[in-house]
Amino acid sequence: MKILLVEDDAMIGDALQYSLIMQQYAVDWVQDGASALLALKNQHYDVVLLDLGLPEMDGVDVLRSLRQSGNATPVVIVSARDEVASRIAGLDLGADDYVLKPFEVDELSARIRAVVRRKSGHANSVLENGNLSLNLVTRVALVGGVEVRLSAREYAMLEALLIRPGAILSRQDLEDRIYQWGQEVESNAIEFLLHGLRKKIGAESIKNIRGLGWMVSKQS
Ligand code: CA
């Protein structure tokens, strides 16, 4: 799962990015509103963690501008502003949740999962499709009821494909969802990961759509 972290405080940002990476998220971190909007214009993120007190452009203005541009990426406001008015303003502007600083990373992580699940139309934390099942909390993947061990990147790839069965993801889409800024992506990295993943979950599980990318067919 790919997160955009918008946080101007270097200490909080650094600690939070580290904790989230430890929880297997890919995290890009920006420190101001303009950079956040630029990143969101150019890339897919599963969720945005948005601080409100930012230099120049306030978090509320970032959110307003994002929604006005038609971008529906889930946004969780992470702020020390605890007045009810500022929470209501954030939610009214299209934020999906509001977490008060200080917070436990585990709680934030649970809220991230809940928001992403709601937006993608899943009722619970287990993505199921045909004989595949992926638990977003325990990160356990089952094929025909049998657990298979996936590397962190294989997991990220399967999650990206299973969250929206039937959607075709291009190489760039997959790279965006698996890697964060500064991570070098070798030219055949995606094929290499796909090869490993298919070996573990069955070659027929992931379809290659020539010239477009890859998908998991929607099954009941
Ligand atoms: Ca701040």
Question: What does the model show?
Answer:
There is one protein chain. The chain is α/β, with parallel strands linked by helices and 220 residues long. The protein folds into 2 domains: 2-120, Response regulator (Rossmann fold, 3-Layer(aba) Sandwich), CATH 3.40.50.2300; 126-215, Winged helix-like DNA-binding domain superfamily/Winged helix DNA-binding domain (Arc Repressor Mutant, subunit A, Orthogonal Bundle), CATH 1.10.10.10. The protein has 8 helices and 11 strands. Helix 3 (59-68) links the parallel strand 3 and strand 4 (75-79). It is globular. The two termini are 24 Å apart. The model has no long low-confidence stretch (mean pLDDT 93). It binds calcium ion. Residues 8-9, 51, 53-54 line the site of calcium ion.
Task: Supply the key terms.
Arc Repressor Mutant, subunit A; binds calcium ion; four-stranded antiparallel sheet; alpha/beta; Rossmann fold; 8 helices; 220 residues; five-stranded parallel sheet; 2 domains; 20% strand
Largest sheet: 5 strands, parallel
**CATH homologous superfamily heading of the largest domain:** Response regulator
Strand content: 15-25%
Class from secondary-structure proportions: alpha/beta
Order of helices and strands: EHEHEHEHEHEEEEHHHEE
> What overall form do the CA principal axes indicate?
globular
| Rounded Rg | 18 Å
Tally of separate domains: 2
Instruction: Could you tell me the CATH topology label of the largest domain.
Output: Rossmann fold
- Care to count the β-strands? 11
Give the terminus-to-terminus CA distance.
24 Å
Share of residues in helices:
40-55%
CATH class bucket of the largest domain = Alpha Beta
- Mean pLDDT, all residues: 93
Strands in their spatial order, largest beta sheet: 2-1-3-4-5
> Which small-molecule species are bound to the chains here?
calcium ion
